[in-house]
Amino acid sequence: MTVRTVELPQLWMPYPLRVNPHLPALHAENESWAREMGMLEGPDGPAGARPIWTRPKFHAMTVDQLTAWTLPDAPLAGLRLNHRFNVWALAWDDYFATTFKQTGDLAGAVVFTARLHEFLRTEPGARLPEPTNAVERGIADLQGCLFPPRLAHWRREFNQHLVRYVDAGVEELANSLSGRVPHLIDYPSFRRDSFAAHTAPYSVELATGARIPEQIRHSRTVLALLDAFMDFMGLANDIASYEREVHEERDVNNLVLVVGSSLGIGLHEAVPGALNLVNARLRDFEHLRRTDLAQLVQRAGLHRDERAELEVWLEGACGFLSGLHAWYTGAPRYASADEPFPE
Q1: Does residue 8 carry a pLDDT above 60?
Q2: Could you give all domains of the chain from N- to C-terminal order, each with its CATH number?
Q3: Which residues pair with 53 in a beta bridge?
């Protein structure tokens, strides 16, 4: 049995898909930044740049749809910014996979990642090194626009999470080279790092203009809600990308393998077990949102404006999850290996 026999719509999704009305504008300029950074083949890229994607492969990822589906309420400027970040994250992922994972070059991965740290400085106005590849070029460019005044408070936290994101790639490679499958107890928190899920609240704030009120932001209830929110992202991705990661890339960092190894069960049982775990985390998010958070808001005595802002943020978070679900279950990036990319 393989994951190809699992109907991905079994992933529970109670929130309807909403599409950003600026998708046509985003689609029209979908290639421009990736080509400018040297990630995408084409005549307009930097001289001597090694592209990460061909045009068919880039379009098969439908990054413009991913962005418009996950951020249905974002203004065009915010949508463009998040689109560039999504492109960069996928560029890092594919570059790391082809350059280091497929070759088993752990030493090279460590050097590459240490270089990336220098582009993820937390202090404003930090001097960055001269980029030497498309991934470095992309993150250097993003550092100049990711933190406009209303999002300036995100600089330190966002870049710290990106450091954990790229570091997790090295740990994933070390696991694969040694054959060490992570344990189920440790894996969800590690997957939040390796998926860059901690940056998703920034994306929701960018799209909605709303923040979780500071009075409750660090409460146990909100932290539990954010953990469940982030867990769905990476763990559902493991279900969708199992075929590519495990069979093509020989990766051991996948929830299906983690469940099977940790519980001592075969693939036939591990697939539905992993799927049930992902659905359970989304049920946790929904319960916290509708029950525990409502009680916390009442106890904290939030003002009407604060409650309204929280509701806007939560609606944006639900839209984010719905958009990810639609991308996982429909994007050619997650199609079976024997299905060619569309031209």
Answers
A1: no
A2: 21-59+75-179 (1.10.600.10), 181-343 (1.10.600.10)
A3: 40
